[in-house]
Design a protein that fits this description.
The chain contains 21 helices and 9 strands. With 646 residues, it is an alpha+beta fold. Strands 1, 2, 3, 4, 5, 6, 7, 8 and 9 form a 9-stranded mixed beta sheet that branches. α19 crosses α20. The radius of gyration is 31 Å and the shape is elongated.
């Protein structure tokens, strides 16, 4: 087929994909530019005026708009016609006649319309008595690809509806290959549907463009003269997507994909050779792999409408992946209740913007002290690539550590953390008025020698219908922190039994660089309160934000966005990553990085495809469908175009 779709919406993306313009609102000032070449439009309008004062019957107008769309959008851009403007006048006329024939049905009927010499004949380039009869039309049109003409006519007919449907977007803002406008379904009482074939075809086309955007970031300095270099970046990630679909390891997965697919498939050994290993001449480390996938994510978010608008709120969390292999320094032992022997630990940074909750970075860590270091690295790399406007960051109680919150402040991020289980916070919850929110100011850290030494707390009632899902990270040597509630004296900074198994980290924060800071004293207002609530009816968050001028219930509600990172982590582990049986840290980083990439493709597709297919409210692509779109994509198709525009 001859359709290769490049910029589907001209220089600007459509702002209203449901096909209903909001221009009745006088406060709305956005006017997307025309997607047509102005000179070409004016030249065509000199023959047959469209969009002016001239009135036509509905069927005539539909054919005129369809011919105009084919002439100005489809014919110059499609693969079926190499160079539309270079074709002779007769061939161009016959292509237009072929489109009309799809509307009319027969060659004799087509001859009758063209012989009349009305506006439709003039738009097609015919005049009365020029000797064009049905046999001549049949002989010429039958030489063209019938499937191409049928599909081009369908797209042209859909484009005509943009002009004929009230409240729809203007015709000159229709994409080259449009579906029917959403307004058409609304006004005609027809049910809007997208077939699975149409959805997956469009997803594969778009994901090919995503891969073209990110590919420069994902190369691992392979030897270009090596035999395995015949495989493109897309081929490698097609295989990784297939491993995730089948939930299998590389050897079996590569053999199965080679059997199923007509595309050239790298073997498991080729995949292994493409991934750096410790001691390679390139001397890549985990941090370098991490950077590559952060860079790829930033490249993807350069595409129009995909990036969250500022300020961008973040979430940071840890997760574990079970491991049954031999112990090495990158894994830690489990406790008896966990059904595994070792855990790989990963730090994950994501955005939490609704509909745009991308994973910005993911990296394996091996020591507790690396939680803040990994966060600092990922934030720094994102800033280098994108310079985003960050807002606040949400974290779980296990990340309430002095070096973590210091890193947040160094990057200009306000932090908001679920309060850990400690006597002080239990008292706060008990002291809150039943059913009401409260706050506590100026809680002081112990031995926290940073430029700021206090933080605040907000206490909000737990809504009776509030449901949150949290994937609990198993306790391991990296995730356990000291139980400060058992320390004698409350404010004593002495380390108790069961302390950090890695030992204290010596840095600018003394003993607490890798551990939870301890509140120094219970605030005076809590001492005076007899306690009017119960600890299990309120939730406590701690933050460095000024809470005096804040809507406390609103802050508590917004913290729920942190759950998005838990959803993302589950998708990373259970949907977008195949089995990784390697104990090599670089290989593990690549597998998890590929899962990060696939997850971000999934979020982006759900953001973008409604613009192509019609209804943003009800459209949804699953993670598994995204992986199938990756596996079936023709990555060469996405390379030649400007892929920053949708």
């Amino acid at each position: 087929m001859g359709f290769e779709r490049d910029d589907l919406y001209g220089d600007e993306p459509p702002q209203y994909p449901d096909g209903v313009d909001p221009f009745l609102d006088p406060s709305f000032s956005y006017t997307p530019p025309s997607t047509y070449d102005v000179d070409q439009w004016e030249d065509k309008n000199q023959t047959v005026e469209l969009g002016g004062d001239t009135e036509y019957d509905e069927e005539t107008e539909k054919m005129l708009w369809a011919l105009r769309h084919f002439e100005l959008r489809i014919a110059p851009e499609c693969d079926e016609i190499d160079d539309w403007n270079a074709l002779d006048r007769r061939t161009q006329r016959m292509y237009r006649a072929g489109i009309l024939k799809e509307f009319i049905g027969g060659y004799r009927e087509l001859e009758e319309i063209l012989e009349k010499g009305g506006p439709v004949a003039r738009e097609a380039g015919f005049s009365p008595g020029d000797g064009t009869n049905y046999s001549t039309l049949s002989a010429a049109i039958s030489k063209f690809d019938a499937d191409f003409l049928a599909e081009a006519a369908e797209y042209s007919r859909n484009a005509a509806l943009y002009s004929l449907t009230p409240r729809g977007r203007s015709f000159n803002r229709a994409p080259p290959y449009p579906s029917k406008p959403r307004a058409y379904y609304l006004e005609n009482g027809e049910e809007w549907t997208v077939g699975m074939d149409q959805k997956m075809t469009e997803a594969s086309r778009v994901v090919a463009k995503y891969m073209a955007l990110v590919a420069p970031s994902l190369r691992f300095d392979r030897d270009r003269s090596a035999p395995n270099y015949q495989y493109s970046i897309g081929d490698i990630y097609r295989l990784l997507a297939h491993l995730a679909i089948e939930q299998c390891a590389a050897k079996n997965g590569a053999e199965l994909l080679a059997w199923q697919s007509d595309k050239d498939t790298p073997s498991a050994s080729t995949l292994a050779e493409c991934i750096p290993t410790p001691g390679d001449s390139e001397e890549l480390e985990v941090e370098d792999i991490e950077d590559k996938f952060i860079d790829a994510t930033c490249r993807l978010l350069e595409r129009e409408t995909l990036a969250p608008s500022g300020p961008i709120h973040l979430a940071y969390d840890l997760t574990t992946v079970g491991w049954y292999g031999e112990e090495n320094k990158w894994v830690t032992g489990s406790i008896k209740k966990d059904n595994t022997t070792e855990f790989w630990h990963y730090a994950v940074l994501s955005t939490v913007s609704p509909g745009r909750n991308y994973i910005l970075g993911v990296t394996p860590i091996k020591e507790r002290s690396e939680k803040a270091e990994a966060l600092n690295r990922m934030l720094r790399r994102v800033r280098q690539n994108a310079n985003p406007d960050f807002g606040r960051i949400y974290m779980d109680s296990q990340l309430f550590q002095a070096d973590v919150v210091t890193t947040c402040r160094e990057h200009g991020l306000n932090w908001m953390i679920q309060a850990p289980e400690a006597e002080l916070y239990t008292k706060m919850a008990e002291s809150a008025p039943p059913g009401e929110s409260d706050k506590v100011n100026d809680i002081t850290f112990t031995k926290f020698n940073a430029s700021y030494q206090t933080f605040n707390a907000i206490i909000c009632p737990i809504h009776e219908e509030e449901v949150g899902y949290e994937e609990i990270t198993p306790e391991t040597g990296l995730t356990r922190y000291r139980d400060t509630s058992k320390r004698e004296g409350g404010g004593d900074s002495t380390v108790s039994e069961g302390s950090d198994p890695d030992g204290p980290v010596q840095n600018q924060l003394d003993d607490f660089g890798g551990d939870m800071p301890v509140p120094k004293d219970t605030p005076d207002d809590l001492d005076a309160d007899e306690g009017t609530g119960e600890s299990d009816t309120h939730t406590v968050w701690i933050t460095d934000m000024d809470v005096d001028e804040r809507d406390l219930d609103g802050l508590g509600y917004q913290y729920r966005h942190r759950w998005k990172i838990e959803t993302a982590i589950r998708q990373l582990k259970h949907t977008f990553q195949g089995q990784c049986r390697s104990s090599d840290r670089l290989t593990r980083a690549v597998y998890f990085g590929a899962a990060q990439l696939f997850f971000n493709f999934w979020v982006a597709l759900n953001r973008e495809l409604p613009y192509h297919l019609g209804d943003p409210a009800r459209f949804r692509l699953t993670g598994l469908e995204t992986l199938h779109a990756l596996r079936e994509a023709d990555f060469e198709v996405g390379k030649p175009w400007n892929n920053l525009l949708i």
